[in-house]
Structure formats: structure tokens, C-alpha cells
Specification:
This protein is 10% helix and 39% strand. The protein has 824 residues and is mostly beta strands. It is globular and about 100 Å long. Residues 1-20 form the signal peptide.
């Protein structure tokens, strides 16, 4: 279960707002936690939260109350009603201006698992954050930021519930013996998605909390009060940290929670045997047993146990992390070439009441003493202070503080560092002549379909004194076109404009080259180029005429029949010829797609896609199947009959478990993080066939693509594909000779020795293998039987001369054919 707790790498997406705030998205999806069942009947029932009781009494919601929207998959009406009740309880105790979106799935889960949940993504560098260099789960990040960070169609929380349990669907908390209260489990799992999750992992004595700690984990301490995210004491990862995770002495150091708990830190579940998906992300079971008002977020839920209350400790822990917050929203001052007074403005958004006089500007010039300036409320929740003229050739650093009356806490912008991090976090700007070039961020194009032209090219450009212009210089087939001036999008750092087709035609087969030029607003203009030298190259492509059959040995990248990212037709070291290869190694949290430009027409007979492949893809949990969370990484062949609008798997995705020697290679060299250093070689190639008639009908025109999905947890060498063929197998006796898996010859070409493989609808006898030379002369005959419906037949033609031969399998007038090339 280790995969559920690995925090992924950072910095894959940047988000912008009209206020020029910048948000960096963690790669997600984020790890999930697990709620286990307890067999005993607890016969306990907690009181409802006072806020919920008041809401039910008056029928009115607070104007600032959170709103939670749920998308249900597989839920019965009874289960949905229980879920909605739990949602209303959370809505009554949370404050958020942004709708919290939940994807809830009703499905069989592992034995003893009631449910699992987690955030779909994490974010850092949030305007209004309580701590810097930490990651926040999506729902909490959006609440703090005061805006949507992901698309409104994307959930903030993914939650799954075990449809195989004996559930109690009532809303009254009177749970009968032997039944499990669904309202309780939904409340519990939503609590994890909202932020009660540490994101820790433990493997072979080594503990880790991911690339950056979650906001929850920054409050974790051992019994001696040492922060578990202190890198000097507990490097990440390390056995020292691992020892703490199984110490049975981990605490959540929240001043707000201690204030209602007699000054005592809430105790965290840290059993001496690490429980993946459970340890560190729950309150301690023994300290908060069934019936305790704070027992909801303990790791287990017993039968006949109703906990319709998050509990005061959990709510105050949430407040500490930012669910009750005073956000200081401020756009950092840019560098300036002019010596002057510098007004500093900030918008203060508080869930409470801002303490009078607490909004202050603190600044220093050239690391001198701090000057504190009270900020004046200019209108509504806007404040202003002034940094006095520092003179030329000076560096000014500053930060802003504010406090609220309800908690008495002081908030800062930029956010304060996490415990034991000594870095001083301040905004800064330079006054004086500028020599800094702009910074350009752009994902280069590698191909464009003609249907995408003109293409809206997007660039992010930033500069310490401001960006004046961003242009795109480009050429088609080496002939320059007029430069494209990109337009700034509002007040953001994003510049965009239409590329191609505006100054002349651009057609399939053309090659477009371009570079980006960004110039700043300095008196002496500074310029940045992307790429720094040369140009980006874009192949202009279109789909080719559809074919009923297709064959490509992939020994050459030309003609261009495939496009995509993360794949190329190449010949790595250790391989004797070219093939399609993914990135070696592929990346965590990535989706690589290679699309075939020749659509396939499905014929009235069996249409078979076959190729040789190596798939060193992270294996999922034992017993997991494609589509389940525990299946982890996979490769899959997909087809579309609606021009790419929707894609259907030709067959289930698969991983290294698909072939024993692939799994052996994966396991031959693995790291503590679960990555594999096993390397693909030509000896690992194996044939794979797919019957396209299983998914598509006669006459369908199908586009094909090859997709590699990598989740955040681990990665390996990747995928290779060679000798790709689409063939029509003629069969007149469908029941007796239905090649469901196709007929394949492997390897092909060969030196005269190969294997013939086929799958039949049922055990089949009376077949003949016939081989004819290029003149049509019969040169080899062998009787064949597929007793179990499967055929894997070695064939030896090494005594024959080199050349092209036809191999047929079947009966007279009822046979499938393949061509075999013998090379010596």
C-alpha cells in the first residue's frame, strides 16, 4: 500500500489570477488515506456540532459557510442521502468562499477498508498562505487563495467507499449492531481530503514526507518537541525520520488546539508497526477511543459507532492550518530604475475581525535595521504604507503583518517559514540601473495538426522591472514570416497570439521553426531568447488516408506516421534496429501519448493489431486490475472512431506483470522510493496482438494511439514497440477459427527460426501450417492442433534461402496468412 502515501514532485503547473498572484501546483493526484473497519460493536454516539444544530434550527446558512458539491458514481439513493447529511455537517463548521468539489465513488474495496480519500492536488506559493515552502491540499489552498486554482470540472477531493460493507444509511446515529455508519465514514474521509493528511511514507526503515511537507506535517513533533520536518534532525528521507514515524509518540503542535485541550498537544497515531495509508494521518486511537468527542479522525471505525461531529481538536487543527485565516494579498513591487517613495498596498481578507493597528509594513534598506510603518485603511479592506525613498543602488526588503481578534494570531506576507527553517522570508526589490534579462517560460511545440492552425501560442514572461514586449520570430520551410507580437492577458504574466497561417498557407508536411524574444522595460533594454540558441522545430501534420491494413518495422522515423510527446522512433544502445521508445526513464505523474497518423478501417473479418513490445512499467498491487487506484502505472492502446473526441481502450491496460521476464527485470534493481533501474534490452521483446473487432464495428474508421500513464509514486524504464502491423484475418468458420488475440509471427524478420502464435475461440484441431515461397510454391507443411485454444508453435525454416515467404494457418479455403522475411 506504499503508493498511497508518496508525495509527488513539484512545479509542474503555474496558475495566475487577475491580482497577479502566482500559485505553483503540485503534480498530484495526491495520496489517499484509508479508513479501516473495527469488528467490535462500539454502541457510541457523539453529539452534533453546535453550528450544525443551529443551522438546522433556523434553516439558514452563514453567508461565509463553505459549499460542497459532490459528483456521485455508483451510489444508491440511500447512500447519497447519507453522504449529503455528512456534507451538511462539514459545511456548517467550515468557512470558504470557493466551492469544494468532491468525486465520490461507490465500489468494492479491499477487505476491511471502509473508504479512502485524498486531495486531487496540492499547491504552494499561495497568496495568504500561513506558511511558506509547504504544500496545501486543493480545497484548503483554494479557500486561502480565495479563488479557484483548478478547473471547475476538476474535483478537489477524490473519495471511494466500499460497496461491499453492511452499511447503516440512517441520519440519526442510532446504528444497529453489526452495521457501519455511512455518515461517519463520509465525514471521516472528507476530513482527510480537506487537509487531515500527513503524506508520509515508510519503507525498510526509511521515512519520508515527499519533496515538500504538507501543511499538516509541518505541525508534527516528537515527545521532546522536535519538529519532524526539521532537516537538521530528521533528513528527508532518512532512517532517523523513519524511527519517529513508528515511535508511538508523535504530536500536532497547534496553539489553537492546545488552548482547548488543557495546553496538551493532540496525539497522532504512530504505531510501532507502520500502517500505510493510516499512520501519522489520524489522531491516536487509544487517546481518543470510541465515544470521545474527538474520535472521528482516529484510524478505525467500529460497528454501531456514530461520530457525526468532527470534534473540537480537529476543527482547531484545521483553523491552525488555514481554514480560519487572515490572508494578506499583495503584489510584490518590481525593481525600479527611479529613486522615489514606494507605496505598498495590500488587501486584508479575514475570517474574523482585523485587530486595529495590526496591519504594518516592515522594511529594511541594504540589510539595515527594520523600519515599521503602520498601514492606513484606505477603503474597505485595502491598506497602504510607504517605503521612503531609499536612493539609487539600494536593495529594499519588506514584509507585511496583520492579526485577527478571534485567534490573536499574527499573519505575515510573505508567509512565515515552517518550524526550524531559518531562511528570512521577505519581498525585495532593487533601485538602480537594470541589467537583468527577462525570464521566459514556454513549453515548446513539437508538432501541430493543420486543424489547429492558427495556433494560440502562449508564453509566460517575467522581469524585475517589467516586460515591454514578447514577440515570436518564425519561418516556414526556412522562409521567414512576419514576426508575431504576443498580447499580454490582462494583468498576468501570460502573453499569447495566433501562430501560423496568417501570413500565408501552412500545410501538412511543412516544417515551422520559431524562437521567442522577450524585451524588458529598462532604459537600456535587456533581451531574452527562448531557446537561448537556435530555434524550436514544429512538424505540421495531418491524418493520412485511412487504410484497412498497415505495416511498419519502425526502422526509420520517415515517413512521419506518428506524432506525440514522450515518445520517439529511435535506436537506443543495446538495440539492433529502430523502434518506438518512450522516454527512458519515464517520469512520475506523466501521461505520454504517441498517435498514429494512419487511421484504420475495420473490415468485416477479424482486424488484428499486433506488435512486439517491452513494457517495464511499475507493477500495481497484487490482485489489482486495470482501472483501480492500486493498479498504479500502465500502458494502453486506445482507439477513437470520432476523430479523437473520445478514446476507448482496445484492451485493458497493463504493466510489467504482463510478462514474467518484464517483472523480473523491473524487480532486479529497485530503489527505496520504489523506482526501478532495470533496463530494457532486445531480448525482452514479446509479441502482443489485439482484435480491434472487440471494440469497433465493420466500417468504423479508427484512430489509434499508444498511451503511457505514470502516477506520482514510482517510475521505471518505460515502453518500446516494434514491428507494428494491422492485418485482416480471413475466417469463414468464426466459431472454430476466431483469432480473438490475432495471429502473429515473432520475430519478423528472422534468420529462419520464429514462433507462430494464435488464440482461438475454442480448442481446435485439423489445422495445417503451410509455407510458400515468393513464387507461390509450397515448401513446408505441418499438422497443427490448438488443444486449449492457444497456439505457440516454434517453426524452423533455417534451411531455406533468404527471401519473403507466406505462412498460412488453417484449412483449405479457411486460413490466416502472414508474411515472413528470412534474412541471413
Amino acid at each position: 500500500m506504499k503508493k498511497l502515501l508518496l508525495l509527488p514532485a513539484l512545479l509542474l503547473a503555474t496558475w495566475h489570477s487577475a491580482q497577479a498572484q502566482t500559485f505553483v501546483k503540485d503534480s498530484g493526484p495526491a495520496p489517499a488515506t484509508i479508513c479501516y473497519s473495527r469488528a467490535e460493536d462500539m454502541h457510541t454516539k457523539l453529539t452534533l456540532p453546535a453550528a450544525f444544530v443551529e443551522q438546522q434550527r433556523t434553516g439558514q446558512r452563514r453567508s461565509t459557510a463553505a459549499k460542497i458539491e459532490v459528483t456521485y458514481t455508483g451510489f444508491t439513493p440511500q447512500a447519497q442521502a447519507a453522504f449529503r447529511h455528512a456534507v451538511k455537517i462539514w459545511e456548517s463548521v467550515l468557512l470558504s468562499p470557493i466551492t469544494i468539489r468532491v468525486q465520490a465513488t461507490w465500489t468494492p474495496l479491499a477487505a476491511g477498508v471502509l473508504g479512502s480519500a485524498g486531495a486531487t492536488a496540492y499547491y504552494r506559493d499561495i497568496s495568504g498562505a500561513t506558511r511558506s515552502d509547504v504544500i496545501y491540499p486543493a480545497a484548503l489552498a483554494e479557500k486561502i487563495a480565495g479563488q479557484e486554482l483548478n478547473a471547475v470540472t476538476v474535483p478537489d477531493i477524490n473519495a471511494r467507499f466500499n460497496s461491499n460493507f453492511t452499511w447503516y444509511y440512517g441520519l440519526d446515529g442510532n446504528v444497529p449492531a453489526g452495521q457501519y455508519d455511512l455518515v461517519t465514514v463520509v465525514l471521516h474521509e472528507l476530513g482527510h481530503g480537506l487537509g487531515f493528511i500527513a503524506g508520509t511514507s515508510y519503507n525498510a526503515g526509511v521515512g519520508t514526507y515527499g519533496t515538500l511537507p504538507s501543511i499538516f506535517s509541518t505541525y508534527l513533533e516528537n515527545q521532546a518537541g522536535q519538529s519532524l520536518t526539521n532537516p537538521a534532525l530528521f533528513p528527508n528521507p532518512s532512517t532517523a525520520l523513519g524511527t519517529q514515524l513508528i515511535s508511538n509518540n508523535v504530536y500536532f503542535n497547534s496553539e489553537l488546539a492546545k488552548a482547548i485541550n488543557g495546553g496538551v498537544r493532540p496525539r497522532i497515531y504512530a504505531p510501532t508497526t507502520y500502517s500505510a495509508g493510516s499512520s501519522i494521518s489520524h489522531l491516536d486511537e487509544a487517546t481518543y477511543p470510541a465515544g470521545d468527542i474527538n474520535s472521528l479522525m482516529s484510524p478505525q471505525v467500529g460497528a454501531a459507532e456514530a461520530m457525526h461531529n468532527p470534534g473540537p481538536l480537529t476543527l482547531r487543527m484545521f483553523d491552525e492550518m488555514g481554514w480560519f485565516n487572515t490572508a494578506i494579498r499583495h503584489t510584490k513591487l518590481p525593481d525600479s530604475e527611479t529613486s522615489q517613495n514606494f507605496p505598498v498596498t495590500a488587501t486584508i481578507v479575514s475570517d474574523g475581525t482585523v485587530t486595529p493597528g495590526s496591519v504594518k509594513l516592515h522594511y529594511a534598506v541594504d540589510n539595515g535595521p527594520l523600519v515599521v510603518v503602520p498601514m492606513t485603511n484606505t477603503s474597505g479592506n485595502r491598506y497602504q504604507g510607504v517605503i521612503s525613498n531609499p536612493g539609487l543602488n539600494r536593495t529594499v526588503s519588506y514584509f507585511i503583518t496583520a492579526a485577527d481578534n478571534e485567534t490573536g494570531r499574527t499573519y505575515t506576507a510573505p508567509a512565515a517559514p515552517r518550524p526550524n527553517v531559518t531562511t528570512v522570508v521577505r519581498y525585495s526589490f532593487v533601485v538602480g540601473p537594470d541589467a537583468t534579462v527577462p525570464v521566459v517560460q514556454h513549453k515548446p511545440l513539437t508538432y501541430l495538426f493543420t486543424s489547429q492552425l492558427p495556433y494560440q501560442l502562449t508564453v509566460r514572461a517575467t522581469d524585475n522591472v517589467g516586460v515591454a514586449t514578447v514577440t515570436v520570430e518564425y519561418a516556414v520551410n526556412g522562409v521567414a514570416r512576419p514576426a508575431l507580437v504576443l498580447t499580454r492577458q490582462g494583468s498576468t504574466d501570460i502573453f499569447s497570439g495566433p501562430l501560423g497561417a496568417t501570413a500565408g498557407p501552412v500545410v501538412a508536411g511543412d516544417v515551422l521553426t520559431y524562437r521567442i524574444v522577450a524585451r524588458d522595460a529598462a532604459a537600456n533594454v535587456n533581451q531574452a531568447l527562448s531557446p537561448a540558441t537556435g530555434t524550436y522545430t514544429v512538424n505540421i501534420v495531418n491524418f493520412k488516408p485511412a487504410q484497412a491494413v498497415y505495416s511498419n518495422n519502425l526502422n526509420s522515423a520517415a515517413p512521419l506516421d506518428f506524432v506525440g510527446e514522450g515518445f520517439s522512433i529511435t535506436q537506443p544502445a543495446g538495440f539492433s534496429n529502430g523502434a518506438i521508445h518512450s522516454d527512458h526513464q519515464y517520469y512520475d505523474d506523466s501521461t505520454l501519448i504517441y498517435q498514429m497518423l494512419v487511421p484504420i478501417i475495420i473490415s468485416p473479418v477479424v482486424t488484428t493489431l499486433s506488435f512486439d513490445e517491452i513494457a517495464l512499467i511499475e507493477p500495481g498491487e497484487s490482485g489489482s486490475v486495470f482501472g483501480q487506484e492500486a493498479f498504479y502505472d500502465y500502458v494502453v492502446v486506445e482507439g477513437s472512431k470520432d476523430n479523437g473526441a473520445t478514446w476507448t481502450p482496445v484492451a485493458d491496460g497493463y504493466d510489467a506483470r504482463f510478462r514474467p521476464n518484464w517483472l523480473t527485470t523491473w524487480n532486479s534493481s529497485t530503489t527505496a522510493a520504489g523506482n526501478s533501474n532495470g533496463v530494457g534490452t532486445s531480448a525482452l521483446f514479446a509479441s502482443h496482438s489485439f482484435n480491434l473487432r472487440n471494440r469497433f464495428a465493420t466500417g468504423d474508421v479508427v484512430r489509434l494511439r499508444f498511451r503511457l500513464f505514470g502516477d506520482p509514486g514510482a517510475h521505471g524504464w518505460g515502453w518500446a514497440i516494434d514491428n507494428l502491423n494491422v492485418q485482416n484475418i480471413v475466417t469463414s468458420v468464426a466459431d472454430d477459427l476466431e483469432a480473438a488475440g490475432g495471429l502473429s509471427v515473432y520475430p519478423n524478420p528472422n534468420a529462419g527460426q520464429f514462433r507462430l502464435r494464435a488464440t482461438f475461440a475454442k480448442p481446435t484441431s485439423g489445422l495445417e501450417l503451410l509455407v510458400r515461397n515468393s513464387l507461390g510454391q509450397l515448401v513446408y507443411r505441418q499438422s497443427v492442433a490448438a488443444a486449449a485454444g492457444q497456439l505457440d508453435l516454434p517453426v524452423d525454416l533455417s534451411k531455406f534461402a533468404r527471401g519473403l515467404y507466406q505462412v498460412s494457418l488453417g484449412a483449405p479455403g479457411d486460413a490466416a496468412f502472414r508474411k515472413v522475411l528470412i534474412q541471413k
